[in-house]
Specification:
156 residues; alpha+beta; Alpha-D-Glucose-1,6-Bisphosphate, Chain A, domain 4; seven-stranded antiparallel β-sheet; 7 strands; globular; ASHA1/2-like_C; Polyketide cyclase; START-like_dom_sf
């Protein structure tokens, strides 16, 4: 199952790209790690508190505009995450597309990305926030209900 999230930021695409890829900024909104910015580059992210470690490879790449890698480790089913940046006036539009295996909790995955996008927005504003569990729980319940009603598309 796939879902797309769109956000408009009042920041230039280069600034958002830096937040998506700079090892110094990744821990502020996602997890400590590193992304080799090239096709075939290594992606390593370590969510130490949850025990999740991402060990992946960049599968699509256009400097400053497109980054795709799998969310998981070796042997996991494919869960691509695709980041697309487009200029939009003084800012930019970010589209995040995720794909989750049908037998997994899609509502939980979508809610997790909703929370991390909130953290990304805060990072871009120079504010550090912890993972917003209340937002995550509310979004998870909403997405699960929408999935049950076959009306799933995350809102911006």
């Amino acid at each position: 199952m796939s879902a797309a999230f769109e956000r408009r930021f009042d920041h230039p695409a280069a600034e958002v790209w830096r937040a998506l890829t700079d090892p110094a900024l990744l821990p502020q909104w996602l997890a400590p790690g590193e992304i080799e910015l090239r096709l075939g580059g290594k992606v390593k992210l370590d969510f130490k508190d949850s025990g999740i470690a991402i060990d992946s490879t960049v599968t699509s790449f256009v400097e400053g505009r497109l980054l795709e890698y799998a969310w998981g480790g070796s042997g996991d089913p494919p869960r691509p995450v695709r980041w697309i940046l487009e200029p939009d006036g003084d800012g930019c539009r970010l589209t995040l597309r995720i794909t989750v295996p049908a037998d997994e909790d899609v509502g939980r995955s979508a809610a997790g990305w909703e929370a991390h996008l909130e953290m990304l927005a805060a990072t871009l504003e120079g504010v550090s926030i912890h993972f917003p569990f209340e937002l995550f729980k509310a979004a998870r319940d909403t997405y699960r209900a929408r999935l049950a009603a076959a009306d799933f598309a995350p809102q911006a």
